[in-house]
Amino acid sequence: MYNNIYMIVAATEKSRAIGIDGQMLYHLPEELKYFKETTDGHTIVCGRRTYHTFNKKPLPNRKNIVLTRSNEKFENAYTMNSKEEVLDYAENHPEELIFIVGGDNVYSQFINHAKRLYVTEIEENFPALADSFFPRFDPDDYTVISESKSHKNEDNISYKYVVYEKK
User: Which of 3, 71, 77 minimizes the C-alpha distance to 45?
Assistant: First the structure.
Protein backbone atom coordinates (compact mmCIF):
# COMPACT_ATOMS: atom_id res chain seq x y z
CA MET A 1 0.00 0.00 0.00
CA TYR A 2 1.12 3.55 -0.81
CA ASN A 3 -0.03 6.37 1.45
CA ASN A 4 -0.29 8.78 -1.49
CA ILE A 5 -2.24 6.57 -3.92
CA TYR A 6 -6.00 7.04 -3.84
CA MET A 7 -8.81 5.91 -6.13
CA ILE A 8 -11.95 7.77 -7.12
CA VAL A 9 -14.87 6.08 -8.86
CA ALA A 10 -18.62 6.18 -9.41
CA ALA A 11 -19.89 2.59 -9.28
CA THR A 12 -23.17 0.81 -8.70
CA GLU A 13 -23.43 -0.47 -5.14
CA LYS A 14 -23.95 -4.19 -5.85
CA SER A 15 -22.43 -5.14 -9.20
CA ARG A 16 -19.75 -2.36 -9.07
CA ALA A 17 -20.60 -1.40 -12.68
CA ILE A 18 -18.83 1.75 -13.91
CA GLY A 19 -19.46 1.97 -17.63
CA ILE A 20 -20.55 0.64 -20.97
CA ASP A 21 -19.06 1.17 -24.42
CA GLY A 22 -16.45 3.55 -23.01
CA GLN A 23 -19.02 5.83 -21.35
CA MET A 24 -20.11 6.33 -17.76
CA LEU A 25 -23.41 4.68 -16.85
CA TYR A 26 -25.13 7.74 -15.39
CA HIS A 27 -25.02 11.50 -15.81
CA LEU A 28 -24.52 12.81 -12.28
CA PRO A 29 -23.53 16.51 -12.49
CA GLU A 30 -22.98 16.82 -8.73
CA GLU A 31 -20.74 13.74 -8.79
CA LEU A 32 -18.65 15.31 -11.58
CA LYS A 33 -18.30 18.41 -9.40
CA TYR A 34 -17.25 16.18 -6.47
CA PHE A 35 -14.65 14.49 -8.72
CA LYS A 36 -13.28 17.87 -9.79
CA GLU A 37 -13.12 19.24 -6.23
CA THR A 38 -11.52 16.06 -4.87
CA THR A 39 -8.83 15.73 -7.54
CA ASP A 40 -8.18 19.46 -8.11
CA GLY A 41 -4.53 20.36 -7.67
CA HIS A 42 -3.43 16.72 -7.53
CA THR A 43 -2.13 14.05 -9.91
CA ILE A 44 -4.49 11.73 -11.78
CA VAL A 45 -3.66 8.44 -13.48
CA CYS A 46 -5.91 6.92 -16.12
CA GLY A 47 -5.77 4.56 -19.03
CA ARG A 48 -5.65 5.72 -22.64
CA ARG A 49 -9.33 5.03 -23.36
CA THR A 50 -10.43 6.90 -20.21
CA TYR A 51 -8.22 9.84 -21.15
CA HIS A 52 -9.89 10.03 -24.57
CA THR A 53 -13.32 10.41 -22.89
CA PHE A 54 -12.33 13.67 -21.15
CA ASN A 55 -14.00 16.75 -22.62
CA LYS A 56 -10.94 18.84 -21.77
CA LYS A 57 -7.57 17.22 -22.34
CA PRO A 58 -5.67 17.27 -20.09
CA LEU A 59 -7.99 17.80 -17.12
CA PRO A 60 -7.18 21.31 -15.89
CA ASN A 61 -5.26 22.06 -12.69
CA ARG A 62 -4.11 18.45 -12.34
CA LYS A 63 -1.01 16.59 -13.43
CA ASN A 64 -2.38 14.05 -15.93
CA ILE A 65 -0.62 10.70 -16.30
CA VAL A 66 -1.82 8.30 -18.98
CA LEU A 67 -0.96 4.66 -18.36
CA THR A 68 -0.71 2.87 -21.69
CA ARG A 69 1.23 0.17 -23.48
CA SER A 70 0.87 2.07 -26.76
CA ASN A 71 3.41 4.53 -28.14
CA GLU A 72 0.77 7.24 -28.36
CA LYS A 73 1.80 10.66 -27.05
CA PHE A 74 -0.61 12.90 -25.18
CA GLU A 75 -0.19 16.66 -25.41
CA ASN A 76 0.38 18.24 -21.98
CA ALA A 77 0.06 14.87 -20.23
CA TYR A 78 2.70 12.44 -19.05
CA THR A 79 2.83 8.89 -20.38
CA MET A 80 3.82 5.89 -18.31
CA ASN A 81 3.96 2.38 -19.72
CA SER A 82 3.62 0.15 -16.65
CA LYS A 83 2.12 -0.13 -13.19
CA GLU A 84 5.66 -0.32 -11.82
CA GLU A 85 6.52 3.02 -13.40
CA VAL A 86 3.51 4.64 -11.67
CA LEU A 87 4.42 3.00 -8.34
CA ASP A 88 8.02 4.25 -8.67
CA TYR A 89 6.66 7.72 -9.37
CA ALA A 90 4.44 7.55 -6.26
CA GLU A 91 7.36 6.40 -4.14
CA ASN A 92 9.59 9.20 -5.43
CA HIS A 93 6.89 11.89 -5.00
CA PRO A 94 5.42 11.15 -1.53
CA GLU A 95 4.15 14.74 -1.24
CA GLU A 96 1.80 14.29 -4.22
CA LEU A 97 -1.67 12.80 -3.89
CA ILE A 98 -2.14 10.48 -6.84
CA PHE A 99 -5.71 9.58 -7.82
CA ILE A 100 -6.37 6.52 -9.96
CA VAL A 101 -9.41 7.55 -12.05
CA GLY A 102 -10.04 4.58 -14.37
CA GLY A 103 -10.77 2.55 -16.36
CA ASP A 104 -11.48 -0.87 -15.00
CA ASN A 105 -8.12 -2.38 -15.98
CA VAL A 106 -6.23 0.47 -14.28
CA TYR A 107 -8.40 0.18 -11.16
CA SER A 108 -7.68 -3.56 -11.02
CA GLN A 109 -3.93 -2.98 -11.24
CA PHE A 110 -3.90 -0.53 -8.32
CA ILE A 111 -6.69 -1.68 -5.96
CA ASN A 112 -4.19 -3.37 -3.63
CA HIS A 113 -1.90 -0.32 -3.56
CA ALA A 114 -4.42 2.42 -2.73
CA LYS A 115 -4.64 3.94 0.74
CA ARG A 116 -8.06 5.52 0.16
CA LEU A 117 -11.05 4.80 -2.03
CA TYR A 118 -13.42 7.65 -2.85
CA VAL A 119 -16.48 5.73 -4.00
CA THR A 120 -19.70 7.25 -5.25
CA GLU A 121 -22.08 4.39 -4.55
CA ILE A 122 -25.01 4.45 -6.96
CA GLU A 123 -28.17 2.69 -5.78
CA GLU A 124 -28.82 -0.42 -7.82
CA ASN A 125 -32.29 -1.94 -7.80
CA PHE A 126 -31.42 -4.29 -10.65
CA PRO A 127 -28.09 -5.13 -12.32
CA ALA A 128 -26.91 -2.33 -14.60
CA LEU A 129 -26.15 -3.07 -18.22
CA ALA A 130 -22.38 -2.61 -18.21
CA ASP A 131 -19.14 -3.94 -19.63
CA SER A 132 -16.69 -2.42 -17.14
CA PHE A 133 -16.60 -2.84 -13.40
CA PHE A 134 -14.73 -1.55 -10.36
CA PRO A 135 -12.86 -4.41 -8.68
CA ARG A 136 -14.41 -5.98 -5.60
CA PHE A 137 -12.75 -5.17 -2.30
CA ASP A 138 -13.36 -6.42 1.21
CA PRO A 139 -14.97 -3.61 3.24
CA ASP A 140 -13.61 -5.27 6.40
CA ASP A 141 -10.12 -4.28 5.24
CA TYR A 142 -11.16 -0.61 5.35
CA THR A 143 -12.48 1.98 7.75
CA VAL A 144 -15.22 4.30 6.48
CA ILE A 145 -13.83 7.76 7.20
CA SER A 146 -16.75 9.67 5.71
CA GLU A 147 -20.16 8.95 4.24
CA SER A 148 -22.60 11.48 2.83
CA LYS A 149 -26.35 11.44 2.98
CA SER A 150 -28.10 10.12 -0.11
CA HIS A 151 -28.40 12.42 -3.14
CA LYS A 152 -30.71 12.14 -6.18
CA ASN A 153 -30.13 13.37 -9.69
CA GLU A 154 -32.78 14.70 -12.11
CA ASP A 155 -33.58 11.10 -13.15
CA ASN A 156 -34.24 10.13 -9.52
CA ILE A 157 -31.07 8.03 -9.28
CA SER A 158 -29.85 7.84 -5.67
CA TYR A 159 -26.17 7.89 -4.76
CA LYS A 160 -23.89 8.71 -1.87
CA TYR A 161 -20.20 9.44 -1.36
CA VAL A 162 -18.22 7.03 0.79
CA VAL A 163 -14.52 7.36 1.59
CA TYR A 164 -12.77 4.17 2.68
CA GLU A 165 -9.29 4.05 4.19
CA LYS A 166 -7.19 0.89 4.24
CA LYS A 167 -6.65 -0.41 7.79
Answer: 77
